[in-house]
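Risk register update: the risk that structure generation would not scale has been downgraded. Supporting records follow, first protein first.
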Amino acid sequence: MEQIPCDEPNPYQVACQQLDIVAAHMKLDPDILELLKHPKRTLIVSIPVRMDNGHIKVFTGMRIQHLDAFGPFKGGIRYHPEVCLDEVKALAIWMSIKCAVVGLPYGGAKGGIICNPKEMSESELEHMTRRFTHEIIDIIGPYRDVPAPDVYTSAREMAWIYDTYSEAKGFAIPEIVTGKPISVGGSLGRREATSRGTVISVREAAKRMKLDLKNATVAIQGFGKVGYHAATLISEYGCKIVAVSDSRGGIYNPKGFDPKEVKKHKQKTGSVVGFQGTKKVTNEELLELPVDILIPAALENQILAGNAPRIKAKIIGEGANGPTTPEADEILYKNGVFVVPDILANAGGVTVSYMEWVQNLTRESWTEDEVNNKLEDRMVAAFDEVYKVHQQEKVHMRTAAYIVALKRIAEAITDRGIFP
């Protein structure tokens, strides 16, 4: 069974280090801390797929369930050639913290398949998704574990999971998964939810920093689902998008450009690189550009101790999961950079996933305005609560968010007790 070693710094070690830092600050019960470092369940499966050439290829898939003190496990499934077990464990932990920060009745989970979806046909992806669903079907369910999209998965894959699960159970169960197409029970507003939550968080940070968003410059690392919608949404506040990137590289123009035109260019060429009137930059260079706002919306471990001192942005809104290491956090905090951490900034996605799940359970359908307004209210309330702790405890926003989350988690675990 294929196992890919995680790049350094190891994401799971980073997640545990973050827990240690906050636990020491808030004097968390060591028993609670020990529980939080160990996911409740880890399942690794082989996924045999007959490829288009007629041969069978066996992929490795995994589902990590971290915590269910509040309710069902919740978390995305990513398809990526560098998925590794410790990465998925870290993401599951971060999901638990994220759900607790915004007060959702979920615990964290995460899933992944080691594959390169860019080199697979739609038929191969469908067969792989359905077989993976079959392999994990005994540990998922609308009241047990509710998957969602993540890196290189989308509404299409969620529809396949929904259909496979429903066929196995004998009737339609749309609440098994979120992030589905609207036609099969998906929620209006879900597609842009992660980006919208990130932009709301950046807007709230700008208010505290007294930064006028009109003509504020923005660089976005990653121009996929999160990065693109973040670019278009933050532009509505008058911000100027001056740099974006994808896996092939980035582009920069200090005068700004239209992200919608960049998307058209990417659809034609396969990358943002080469867009008219821009200079090519690397993903690493993009992080250090002289901008007001930086939105990392790609993968983990992008802002490290080595490059953090060179970051010039006033505000960082983490659209990606785990883009900043603990060492970099301290450097940024000392340098006056206001970081809205991933567990708060990108919680819009799971928040609207929760709304989709509730709509499915009750067989209701809400308007897009209703969804966006509910998201706005929850994100602003969560930001205010974390910011208050940030000021009272004189800690950076990530530690403040962890304090908010861990207090809720510790109380739930203590009240429920350990069975038997």
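Supporting record for the second protein:
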Amino acid sequence: MDGNENLELLKRKFLEHLEIEKNCSSLTIRNYDHYLSSLIEFLKSHLNKDSLDIQDINADSVRGFRLYLNRQTFKMVTQGYYIICLRSFLKWLIKNDYKKVLQPEKLDVPKYKSGSLKFLDSDQMKRLLNQPILSTKTGLRDRCILELLFSTGLRVSELTKLNRDKINLKSREFGVIGKGGTARVVFISKEACIYLDRYLRTRVDKHKPLFIRYSGRMDLTTDDDKLRLTPRSVQRIVKKYVKKAKLPIDATPHTLRHSMATDLLRSGADLRSVQEILGHKNISTTQIYTHVTDKRLKEVHDKFHSGNIE
């Protein structure tokens, strides 16, 4: 195929590819749409053109776009998202035989220093879990949310998609579809099961979502999707109890995922198993947690290395 096809039309085809063939989440598609639309708007202004084609994405124009992002004071990690998206778009163009496409390998993702990994230790986790007031239905629901996030390591989007019939308290496990449509099994701790069982027994409604809102109008005819808690709602819930617990860490639902992984590794779990539990595609992603095993490795070295034996 030649490179004269309208760039906005190609963007739409690429987003459809992400939805249909890659099974990307609506959030990913929305973000990629934003990144590519920003690039297109910049190129139109920079090149003074009303319509763009593939050849307008070249080394010089991309460099100009990167300078623009940097001067807009975007964080380096955010700039990286734009380049990752553009590289994916270019790879898709090449795969579909479009000509005169800028080679994606020529675009380096900006390097940045990652901040320290945030997680809660066991005492902090207990303080957080004990904040909800269990005598209220909202408090009991919130305790279950906190317990399940810490027990399973679910992403917040995975948690909010759960339906009641998904939960098997006898086997203490269930399947989820994670990033990129990848299926995995997650496990519920005995402690979490106690609160989930108590919570589910209070649910006299027939609505499917595991976690629902209690504010506003609700009856038997209310649509399930209107009752289901959103990821943003869960983020607010976690923030509320973090503040009540007066924790020194500004924890989020993802912090509880980090805390679960850290808890497993500190207790002796191997990295490969934690990778599978978290649903990481590559072990390199899981390796961000290896710092927590330093103390345990030092103890092994002190105990077994011949230079330490008196």
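The mean pLDDT is 87. On this basis the risk owner (M.S.) recommends closing the item.
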